[in-house]
Amino acid sequence: VTASTFSSVEQIVAAITAVREHPVLLLTDFDGTLCEFKDAPDAVILSPPRRLALSALAARPTWSVGIVSGRRAADVRQRAGLRGSAYYAGLHGMEIDGPDKQFQVPDLGALHDEIQRLGNALADATASFPGALLENKDLSVALHVRAASPRDRQHAERSFWTLARPMIEAGTLRLQRGECVFELLPNIAWDKGDAVRWIEADTRHRHGAAAFPIYLGDDRTDEHAFDAVGDRGLTVVVGSRPSRAQYRLPDPAAIERLLTRLATPHAPH
């Protein structure tokens, strides 16, 4: 069942309360889900109420918490600032920093030098378009066009595509489209759904039992994670775009209400 209308926070809390006997694995996207989008990715940081709620949930003995992001794992860890142990999956799940185990897809760094050369060329090619921002993540490059005018966005995207096309057509890199962002990643068959499955397996090993998975996300890249969770757990999409998630909330402020409600003493443990 997918959500076509907005759900209430209480609906979602009730569904989670129904599985209070099970360990819980709560995974969430960062930008657009935990945090409101900003024109500059560097300006985004997790607000104190959301940080406190997630930290409280992570401290529960039967709960595991993680953030799955397109950012680098170290970057999202710093911006989240959670207390206690948590999972941080970066580059759309291709690198995972867990409480006591790390993971990186094989050969992730093999294209580092080529990506850097391409990133430098893309930065030069898009620099003259106001509002277009080229983000270098070391192992990927992303063009953000949220703040660009329609005309500058069109020109920046055309320049981006002209330079990127040879490596995409050669199968070296793949293009990943997000919310007002175009990202070039190593063409490795791994996505947020694979990251969810890896984290699930690790929590099963750590706790000796399968956890009830919950995934919160807003981006089309989160659909892989929603599919990985399926009917075994609970999925929430943020925003109004079509999605295969079971529940729907309007914005990160509603996610804050959900997390705060879950973290209160009378919520499910």
Automatic annotation (TrEMBL):
GO molecular function: trehalose-phosphatase activity
EC number(s) reported in the record: 3.1.3.12
Record carries keyword Hydrolase: yes
Keywords (A to Z) from UniProt: Hydrolase
Record's keyword annotation contains Metal-binding: no
TM region positions: none
One GO process term, biological-process aspect: trehalose biosynthetic process
Alphabetized InterPro entries for the sequence: HAD-like_sf, HAD-SF_hydro_IIB, HAD_sf, OTSB-like, Trehalose_PPase
Pathway stated in the Swiss-Prot or TrEMBL entry: Glycan biosynthesis; trehalose biosynthesis
Pfam families xref list: Trehalose_PPase (PF02358)
Family statement drawn from the similarity comment of this UniProt entry: Belongs to the trehalose phosphatase family.
Full protein name: trehalose-phosphatase
